[in-house]
């Protein structure tokens, strides 16, 4: 088999359609894009381009009252939340608090949310990067969305039927969960996550040396959200993805040196993609062939060196994104410091793990695309779209032609380059992480907006751009300012998400409320009463717009007060709120939901509580009083 270790060889003589912005400014100067197709070297005229762009914008227009074709789920970046948008309108529909505190819904304030956040392990910040939706047989099933928290080494699960976070797992033995992807086949049994930074093991302050420092690849059981197993690796871990057989996952490593300084992380000429044999790892754990570290009970296997569990495929230094093509044929590692991406044939991995071929024999193409390739997405028609951070472009290229070129054919694999504004990171095409990739829309999440929007001070928004990729030409149709680096997104058809209109009374989301009410002999759906247990006071009340079932209750200064509110309204969209003045307490109670919040009664006096979610024409009149007596 032909090997390609010299990454500087055989770069294509690219036609105008594939020239970088540095060398071809004609079409870009006229139309704001590099507009030549891969079908020839002609450049669209100003008039032709304007007509095509107008057609694309009309396609993206969603009239008032009409519904979008796709849900888009955006990571909230440093906000620690997930944002829900309609695509192609790019209208924001909802924000789902995850790792942050949200006074509107009471997330991080209510007892139910604190229980999920981990009680004493609760942090006030989060850093969300990668939202991914559960799958069955390689297709989105709309059950869960999973999201990482790089800042505090956590992974969260969101129930998509109610759009609420229902589980958060703190990952032991590692720091900074960055890359996160899901097992696609036969279903999402595992959530795969990469810990980015090497740390001593155990990390208990007895040893700070790098000799005993490493990181791990982690698999979480998607249903229980318990950590299933971990794999110790050489180097560090960046981004990850899984195949369409359920057998393999792969991750990029940009710090094979395990360095702690910038120069050190670029010392080696190559880094690698580490491939994990999920079947072998699971079998070893089942057979009891693992160890544990410190107080953690999580099974850990060793994937370093010549391990049966891993293979380390050399690629150009400091790679970043790792993406699986929707036909299940390729892992694509994005070069970052190299102008190339590395195409790994998944059907060669069995032979690799049986030691029948060499590591680099799995590479079937390494096309040069431009400066700073970070992430690649796909249209389901054999084309890939790679963000070029330094060039501020998206490069559309054909995978089959790139493979032909790698094998010596004189073929131009680049179809088009489109200027984006500015410095793109992630990109995501509609349905691209599934077998159903439909090649209609591409979202590019650019890190800088610079001059694209009204100035708002030294801190600028990022810029999310929507591109029509349904035809031969990419066409930019929308700029959208976003706050605090959303980082990544995922697009699914609207029919793949089935949401509830109102809660069911047996919903597990407020199971702890039902359990406590049962202990107190309270019927949540009808009782309005106060239960005193020493200095602990539990206040149960119902609400029907525009009135609480209890409009006054008494407590003593310093009492621990827990208020349970059950919204008895059966009407969709009639959400109630509960806000206790001067106590830092507020929460949302949607139709047929029970919510609870605990606080300490303040100084003696009168404190009003009111509904802070508009629910009725007499909404302003919906309130009551807490009377605090001297202790």
TrEMBL record:
Its EC number is 1.7.2.4. Cu cation Z2 binds at residues 129, 178. InterPro entries: CcO_II-like_C, Copper_CuA, Cupredoxin, N2O_reductase_N, N2OR_C, NO_Rdtase, Nos_propeller, NOS_propeller_2. Pathway: Nitrogen metabolism; nitrate reduction (denitrification); dinitrogen from nitrate: step 4/4. It is found in: Periplasm. In the C-terminal section; belongs to the cytochrome c oxidase subunit 2 family. This is Nitrous-oxide reductase. It comes from Marinobacter nauticus (strain ATCC 700491 / DSM 11845 / VT8).
């Amino acid at each position: 088999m032909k090997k390609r270790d010299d990454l500087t060889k055989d770069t294509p003589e690219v036609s105008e359609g594939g020239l970088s912005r540095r060398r071809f400014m004609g079409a870009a100067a006229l139309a704001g894009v590099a507009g030549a197709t891969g079908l020839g070297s002609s450049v669209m005229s100003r008039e032709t381009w304007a007509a095509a762009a107008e057609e694309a914008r009309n396609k993206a227009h969603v009239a008032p009252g009409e519904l979008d074709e796709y849900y888009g789920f955006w990571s909230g970046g440093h906000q620690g939340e997930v944002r829900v948008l309609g695509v192609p309108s790019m209208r924001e529909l909802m924000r789902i608090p995850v790792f942050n505190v949200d006074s509107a819904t009471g997330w991080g304030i209510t007892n139910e949310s604190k229980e999920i956040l981990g009680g004493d392990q609760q942090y006030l910040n989060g850093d969300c990067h990668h939202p991914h939706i559960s799958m069955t047989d390689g297709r989105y099933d709309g059950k869960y969305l999973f999201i990482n928290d790089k800042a505090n080494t956590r992974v969260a699960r969101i129930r998509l039927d109610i759009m609420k976070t229902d589980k958060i797992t703190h990952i032991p033995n590692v720091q900074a969960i960055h890359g996160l992807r899901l097992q696609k086949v036969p279903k999402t049994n595992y959530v795969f996550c990469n810990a980015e930074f090497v740390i001593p093991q155990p990390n208990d302050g007895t040893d700070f040396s790098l000799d005993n420092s490493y990181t791990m690849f982690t698999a979480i059981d998607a249903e229980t959200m318990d950590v299933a197993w971990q794999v110790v690796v050489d180097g560090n871990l960046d981004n990850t993805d899984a195949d369409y057989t359920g057998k393999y996952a792969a991750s990029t490593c940009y710090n094979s040196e395990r360095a702690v300084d910038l120069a050190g992380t670029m010392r080696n000429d190559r880094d690698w993609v580490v491939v994990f044999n999920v079947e072998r790892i699971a079998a070893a754990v089942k057979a009891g062939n693992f160890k544990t570290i410190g107080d953690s009970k999580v099974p850990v296997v060793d994937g370093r060196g010549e391990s049966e569990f891993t293979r380390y495929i050399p690629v150009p230094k400091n790679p970043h994104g790792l993406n699986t093509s929707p036909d299940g044929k390729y892992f694509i590692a994005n070069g970052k410091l190299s102008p190339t991406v590395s195409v790994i044939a998944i059907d060669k991995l069995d032979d690799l793990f049986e030691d029948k071929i060499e590591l680099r024999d799995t590479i079937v193409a390494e096309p040069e695309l431009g400066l700073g390739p970070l992430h690649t997405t796909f249209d389901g028609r054999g084309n890939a779209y790679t963000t070029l951070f330094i060039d501020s472009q998206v490069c559309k290229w054909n995978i089959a032609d790139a493979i032909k070129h790698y094998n010596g054919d004189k073929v131009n694999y680049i179809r088009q380059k489109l200027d984006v504004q500015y410095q793109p990171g992630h990109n995501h095409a509609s349905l691209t992480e599934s077998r159903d990739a439909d090649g209609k829309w591409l979202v590019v999440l650019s890190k800088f907006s610079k001059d694209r929007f009204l100035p708002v001070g030294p801190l600028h928004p990022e810029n999310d751009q929507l591109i029509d990729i349904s035809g031969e030409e990419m066409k930019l149709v929308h700029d959208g300012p976003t706050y605090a680096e959303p980082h990544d997104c995922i697009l699914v058809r609207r029919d793949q998400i089935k949401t509830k209109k109102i809660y069911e009374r047996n919903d597990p989301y407020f199971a702890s409320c039902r359990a406590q009410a049962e202990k107190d002999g309270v019927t949540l759906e009808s009782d309005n009463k106060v239960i005193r247990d020493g200095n602990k006071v539990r206040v149960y009340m119902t609400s029907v717009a525009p009135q609480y079932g209890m409009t006054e209750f008494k407590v003593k200064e310093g009492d621990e007060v827990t208020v349970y509110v059950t919204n008895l309204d059966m009407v969709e969209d009639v959400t109630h709120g509960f806000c206790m003045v001067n106590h830092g307490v507020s929460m949302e109670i949607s139709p047929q939901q029970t919510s609870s919040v605990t606080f300490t009664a303040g100084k003696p006096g009168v404190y009003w509580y009111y509904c802070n979610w508009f629910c009725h024409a007499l909404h302003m009149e919906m309130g009551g009083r807490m009377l605090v007596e001297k202790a």
